[in-house]
UniProtKB/TrEMBL annotation:
It is a multi-pass membrane protein. It is found in: Cell membrane. It holds the Pfam family MS_channel_2nd. Residues 183-265 form the Mechanosensitive ion channel MscS C-terminal domain. This is Mechanosensitive ion channel family protein. Keywords: Cell membrane, Membrane, Transmembrane, Transmembrane helix. It comes from the Bacteria. The chain crosses the membrane at residues 20-40, 61-83. Signal peptide: none annotated. The keyword Transmembrane applies. SUPFAM superfamilies: Mechanosensitive channel protein MscS (YggB), C-terminal domain (SSF82689), Mechanosensitive channel protein MscS (YggB), transmembrane region (SSF82861), Sm-like ribonucleoproteins (SSF50182). Its main location: membrane. Belongs to the MscS (TC 1.A.23) family.
Length: 292
């Protein structure tokens, strides 16, 4: 039996490689051409969508889809050059089998990618909206394929995976140009309710950050331990800054207006009794009222 030396084996493989080299070079050139087309296609898709829609997130989505499609076509073209007998059905079958393993390995990435596409298409919120999601609140800075970035009100950037956003309830604070706020206060039981209601209404209507329409509502909501309680409903611009500024103005204006009208804003009292345990025979006790 003839023996095969290591040099013969290496010579055989080197000859096979040299025979395949022109084919590999052509396949690499074809794949490189498609990669260049993918870059040009991404830019072209962004420009086309940009002419129709003034939304940077949708423009980015169109560019990404065009780039991915051209890259996949390039892979198919290069594979058919290297393996001439390979048909499209065979490639689909191979990709189908491999996609199962890839799907398990990159499940979270695919979930975020799909959720990002759905968010960009459905547009429950856009860049610049102020939202609350998953305990985070802030202004949306960017919506990418994999994640959404929002700037919190204390200046910190928060990056949230798109799958978390898509499966959570999202409150869009700026979906409408204005929103309603509520402020609560109370007056003493000895005060005139109608007079206090009118004083409070005029005070709130005089606040610069409170909108003229819809009108301010001052409603009695209950009888507390030491006060008749009011809820004041007023409308402001939907931006967080406007809401916070209005609350400061409303609280200040109501306090000064009630003081000027000599209407008491009560605070609760507690009764504290002091017992002298050293004098068991005596039933004398001392009682005093102190603010709670």
């Amino acid at each position: 039996m003839p023996t095969v030396s290591l040099m013969d084996v290496l010579q055989k493989y080197s000859n096979a490689f040299l025979e395949m080299l022109p084919t590999l070079v052509i396949a690499a050139l074809v794949f490189g051409a498609f990669m260049m087309l993918a870059k040009l296609g991404k830019k072209a898709a962004r420009n086309i969508v940009g002419r129709m829609l003034d939304d940077s997130s949708l423009q980015s989505l169109a560019g990404t889809i065009a780039s991915v499609l051209l890259t996949v076509i390039g892979i198919f073209a290069a594979a058919t050059i290297v393996f001439p007998g390979l048909e499209a059905g065979d490639l689909v079958g191979v990709l189908g089998l491999s996609s199962v393993a890839i799907g398990f390995a990159f499940k979270d990435i695919f979930q975020n990618f799909l959720a990002g596409i759905l968010l960009l298409l459905q547009r429950p919120f856009i860049v610049g909206d102020q939202i609350t999601v998953g305990g985070h609140e802030g202004t949306v800075r960017s919506i990418d394929i994999r994640s959404t970035t929002m700037r919190s009100y204390n200046g910190v950037d928060i990056v949230i995976p798109n799958s978390d956003i898509y499966t959570s309830s999202v409150t869009v604070q700026t979906s409408e140009p204005k929103r309603r706020s509520i402020f609560s206060t109370g007056i003493g039981y000895g005060e005139d309710i109608d007079q206090a209601r009118e004083v409070i209404r005029k005070a709130v209507e005089g606040c610069e950050a409170v909108l003229d329409a819809p009108s301010v509502d001052v409603l009695v909501t209950g009888h507390g331990d030491s006060s008749v309680n009011f809820d004041i409903f007023y409308w402001t611009d939907s931006q967080k800054r406007s809401e916070v500024l209005a609350r400061d103005q409303v609280a200040t204006a109501i306090k000064y207006a009630l003081d000027e009208a000599d209407i008491e804003i009560p605070y609760p009292y507690r009764s504290v009794e002091f017992f002298d345990k050293t004098e068991r025979a005596s039933s004398t006790s001392t009682r005093a009222e102190v603010p709670a």
